[in-house]
Structure formats: C-alpha cells, structure tokens
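Course assignment 3, question 2. Fill in each field.
Student: A.L.
Task: Predict the tertiary structure for the chain below.
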Amino acid sequence: MATVTIDQKGAKLTRDGEAIAIYLSGGRHSTIPLRRLDRLLLVGDVSSPKVRVAPAPMTESSGTV
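Answer field:
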C-alpha cells in the first residue's frame, strides 16, 4: 500500500471507477488505482468535490481513520 501526497496548486481530483483521477491545468495528469492506495494527503489549494471513499478502519498503531 502507498501514501500519495497531492500538493500541486490548483489540482483537482475526481473518482473514476476504482481509481482517483488527478487533473492539472484542465487536463488529466494521472490516475491512481484505489486498490494500491493506503492514504491520500491533500495539501494546499487542492479540490476533491467528487471523491467519496469509505474511511479505513481505525487502527491502534496509527490512531487515525
């Protein structure tokens, strides 16, 4: 599993089936399969109006959801 950090100003994320699509400057930049994603960190001016993913169960070691 992976942690992905998105910090590009103006980046937009949408859900595309079983993946997260990342758009920069109006064009599709990349796609991240959800099955490979453990955490997604959005930092700064990043929008994700259509991304809806169920939260992971809380673990004692991380203390986060």
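Instructor remarks: The radius of gyration is 12 Å. The mean pLDDT is 80.
Grade: pending
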